[in-house]
Every structure is written in C-alpha cells, then in structure tokens.
C-alpha cells in the first residue's frame, strides 16, 4: 500500500507555549521541560540545564528522606538561621520593653563615701573687742547715777578704777583668731529622685519600645512567610519535575513501540523508509527530553535538599493538589491581609515608633519637675554643713541648648507623616497582591479542571491514530502529533497544578492566613500522586 502524503498542520508546540506562559514565571525549568516535550529538537548550549553539583550527586546516591509538606515545614523552621535570628530580635525587643516599663518612676540609690578633709576657720576679734570695751564704758559711766547721792562718789571711784583696768584686761586678746581642723569621715547615704512631670517623655519611651517589639515581630512573620513560599516552590517543584519526567518517559516508551511497529511495517513493504526515519527522529528527540527531565529533577532535588539543609535527597510524600471548589470571595482575604499582613504590621509599628519619637522631641521643649530626698546614715561623723536628711522639689527648664529642639521636633513630625504614608502604601500593595494572587489561583484551578476533558480527548485521539497507522490509513506524523498532544496536555496539567499550589501559597501568605494551607491540602479533590519509579 502506498503511504499517504503527510498533511500540512501547525507546529504541535504552538498551543503549549500559550498554556505554559503563566507557569514559566513560577518555574522556568518546568516550562523548559514541557517545551522540550512539545517541540523535540537538538538542544543548544543555552537550553541545556546545568549539570548537577557534587552535593547533588552525593544526595542522589543516599537514601531519600521521605517528608510530607508539614514535616518539611517543621524541619525548615527548626533549622532556619534567618528565623532564629528574627526570634532573637523579638526577644531583644521584648526585653528592652520590659526594661523601660517603669520609666518615670522613682530612682533610689545607695552611696557610700570616705572623705579626708581639712577646714580652716578665721574670726576677726579686733572689732568685737572695741565694741565690748565701748559698751562696758557706757555702762560704767551710767552706773553712779543709779545709786543714792550719798553713794555716788564711792560708785564713781569704783567705776573709774574698772574703766582704767579694762584696756589691760582686753589687750591680750588677738585681733584675729584662726582655727584649722583635719578629719576623716565615712558618709553612707540614701538618695531618691522621682520625676513627677517629664512633658510626656516617659510615655514616649515606653511606646517606642513597644513599637520596636511590634516591628521585630512583623519582620519575623515576614521571614516565616517568605520561607514557606520558598518551601512550597522547592517542594512542589520537585513533585512537578518528577511528574514531567514520568510524562517524558511515557512518551519515549510510546515512540519506541511506534518505531518498532514502523520497522516491522517497512520490512513488510507497507511503509516507506522516510516514514521510519521520521519516527526515529521523534524517538531520539524524546530520549533527549527524558535526559533533560532527569537533570531537571536532580536540580530540583538539590534545591530542596539545600533549602532544608539535609545531607540526602528528599522524597516528598505530599502530592500536587487542586481543589475543585472555588475559593471564598476575595473580600475575605482582603479583610485579613490589609491588617495582619507582615508588611502592613511593620508599617503600623514604624508609624507608632515615629509618633513616639515625635512626642519625645516635643517633651524636650517642656519643663521637667521632680521631687528628691537624701538621708545620712552616719550623722555623728558628718561634716558640720551636711544635713542629716533633706527633701525637696525641683523644676528644670532648658533655656538654651546646643541642639535646635524646634528643628528636632519638625524632623520628627516629618518622619511621622512619612510613616503614615508608608502604611497607606503597604495597605494598597497588600490589596493589589491579594487580588492578583486570588485571580491567579482561580485561573490555575479552572485551567486544571478544563484539562481533564483535553486529556480524555488526547488519549482517544492517540488510540485512533495508532489504529489508523496499523491499518495503513494514517501516517507516522499523525501518530507522533497525537502522542505529542497527549504529552502536552499532561505537562500542562502538571504545570496548572504546580501553579495552583504556588499561587494559593502566595495568596494565603499575602492575606496572613498561612495556617490554612494544610487545610486546603487536606480538602483537595484532585491530587497528582507522585510516581514511585523513574528515579534519575
């Protein structure tokens, strides 16, 4: 029978390029593998994936570690230095907040001083001597008049004698008396100071510390979210790579069988040599696709093993999954995402910190009032001028400072306005990313479900073309195209499931609902069970 002439048809990889466009943004190696299946050709130097590293080769020879996604997530949390560092930052912030929670309260201190001192006292006696002599003279002169006339001459003689003797009595007194004292004193004392008005500085310090704790917690949450997204990409990426390897091997097996049938038909004289060569070319291209898929799987295994920091390859046990039911309305995710998202929480913490800094700058322009007291425990050996105890109240107001306090307040107010706008921008970005992730998740879900009918049609078309080829009414090109179309549909189905899982993880992360990922996995109606064979 004369072979039929091949009909002109569009390139079989044209539809694949469109359907895998979105998946290419998620996993370039996934699309490369699917593209290679759809359009077998001699690979160029740029298209050949990198060879596995020595760590990958060692991991591939070791016994793979079977891990579910939850187990892998727990292993990542326990061994992540980034998360551990953020945990330390949170603990540091909390300790600082506890340290300043009593700012504005009393400060009591106990001190002890040992003093060695010298004190010199000098007293002027010349003036005092003249004053004393003058007063005595005045008194003696007035004394005779206080007696009866008969006694006044006698009293007058006595006072005259006394007045004459006074210079001799007061003359020995020095004009100046000097006294020097040296001593050692041990002075233990208790001092207390209690600010009663700080202009709001104490409250601002506490609010600033609380803002730092919130900022550290938000940063820790952000790192945890990014870590989970990286894990989802690597974990389900390895599952997708294994699925694509199985698809490539199935295509190679089918083309090998087709080549065997074509050679038998050539031997029987019912098939031209050119058609057999056409099948051989397709088979060889499928072999190269399998080799490339094996390398891609090894790269994916290396990626996941490095991410989890394990010495051997990981065997994921949680398959790619897709839920048949649509997601809840996007408004539910927006409600939580615009308030609990790590970036929004960080912006809110920065806004509170900027407000506290503004209040602290304003407090520098206000007076400060405080009460204080001190008590001396060694009063018997105290210096003469030292009080036994003392209490008081004080007010301090800075008139001139070497720092422009008004400009500092202006700077703090500008930073507060900047923080307010940063929070608005974070909320807007959260809404955009949540909406985008929700749409991408729904699109991937719909694409996956629609591929079910495409797979049924592709399998039936391949069966019909194989029968037609055996009956001599079909061509080898028809069988190759049908086999390629089936491989394309299977690769697109894997890509859609992979895209769904990553988009769902991104949606839950953007809306701060990461803990619901396990629930979606458990409730998924469709699972692409990882094959047990085809180990590279």
UniProtKB/TrEMBL annotation:
Residues 1-38 form the signal peptide. The lineage of its organism: Bacteria, Pseudomonadati, Pseudomonadota, Betaproteobacteria, Burkholderiales. Residues 283-310 form a coiled coil. It comes from the Bacteria. This is TolC family protein. InterPro entries: OMP_efflux, TolC-like. Belongs to the outer membrane factor (OMF) (TC 1.B.17) family. Keywords: Cell outer membrane, Coiled coil, Membrane, Signal, Transmembrane, Transmembrane beta strand, Transport. PANTHER family: ABC-TYPE EFFLUX SYSTEM SECRETIN COMPONENT (PTHR30026:SF5), OUTER MEMBRANE PROTEIN TOLC (PTHR30026). It is found in: Cell outer membrane. SUPFAM superfamilies: Outer membrane efflux proteins (OEP).
